[in-house]
Amino acid sequence: MSLIDTPMIHTLSRALSLTSLRQRLVSENIANIDTPGYQTRDIDFAGELRRSMELGDSEGETATVRTLRGIEQRPDGNNVSMDRESLLMAQNQLQFQTGVAVLRSEFSRLQLAINGGSNS
């Protein structure tokens, strides 16, 4: 294991990949808000991250995208809710920003270790 090949960095990398995927799905949902019969798609972020940690992270691992059922549908069969998607987009943005901040902190910690404790 190298200095940058740590479980923490793998987990953060997977979390950032999952937030990117979720952002794409939310964007697709919003883009299809007026498409008759379109069904909302999403991932179980926490479940996918947990699964990734249990199985060991692999970059090629794909998340299970599922069509959400049980959401109120309009008469045209579309179940996209702008309120839900807006909330998910904000939540996802916060998760991404937090992941980037923690990853930055992890790299700063590694840089400190490489430099022997000095900040230069």
Explain this structure to me?
The chain is mainly alpha-helical. It has helices at residues 7-31, 45-55, 82-114; strands at residues 41-42, 66-67. The chain has a two-stranded antiparallel ribbon. Helix 1 (7-31) packs antiparallel against helix 2 (45-55) and helix 1 (7-31) runs antiparallel to helix 3 (82-114). The two termini are 25 Å apart.
Low-confidence stretches: none
Which class best fits the helix and strand makeup?
mainly alpha
Q: For the largest beta sheet, what order do the strands appear in spatially?
A: 1-2
Number of discrete helical segments: 3
Fraction of residues in helix: 55-70%
The backbone outline, from C-alpha atoms, is elongated
How far is it from the N-terminal to the C-terminal residue, by CA?
25 Å
Mean pLDDT: 89
Describe the secondary structure blueprint for this structure.
Blueprint: H1 7-31, E1 41-42, H2 45-55, E2 66-67, H3 82-114
Antiparallel strand pairs: 1-2
Helix pairs in contact: 1-2, 1-3
Please name the defining characteristics of this protein:
120 residues; mainly alpha; 2 strands; elongated; 3 helices; 57% helix; 3% strand; two-stranded antiparallel ribbon
Summarize the structure.
With 120 residues, the chain is mostly helical. It contains three helices and two strands.
